[in-house]
Amino acid sequence: MRERALIVLWPAFVMAGVLEALVFAVVDPELMSWFGGAPLGLSRQAVYTITFFIFWGVIATASAMTQLLASTEPPPPPRRS
């Protein structure tokens, strides 16, 4: 079980870092607002941290669902020679 968790979480961690770098190369966290309304009122580092954990959670959930679906596949029928 521990290995399966690491197989899901480690690549998700790396890709969350890559995705965050790509997003914040274009978006300034201090200019972000709530759906066009009031500014977030968070520091730049807080926005980076929260966004990283959101990205990590979404990617890890997708990877875990893939693992679950791949592991529930029925075994192939036996081959007859």
Structural classification: mainly alpha
How does the major sheet shape up? Answer: none
Topology order in helix (H) and strand (E) letters: HH
The radius of gyration is 19 Å
Q: What count of helical segments does DSSP give? A: 2
Oligomer status: single chain
Strand content: under 5%
User: Could you name the ranges where pLDDT drops below 50 across 5 or more consecutive residues?
Assistant: none
Total domains: 1
Q: Round the mean pLDDT to the nearest integer and report it.
A: 87
Count of β-strands: 0
**What is the rounded distance between the termini?**
36 Å
As a percent range, the share of helical residues equals 55-70%
Q: Quick one: overall form? A: elongated
In short:
By secondary structure, the protein is mainly alpha-helical. It has helices at 2-24, 44-71. The longest helix has 28 residues, at 44-71.
Commentary on this structure:
- The chain is mainly α.
- The protein has one domain.
- Helices cover 63% and strands 0% of the residues.
- It has 2 helices and no strands.
Task: Give the SSE layout.
Blueprint: H1 2-24, H2 44-71
What key phrases describe this protein's structure?
81 residues, mainly alpha, 63% helix
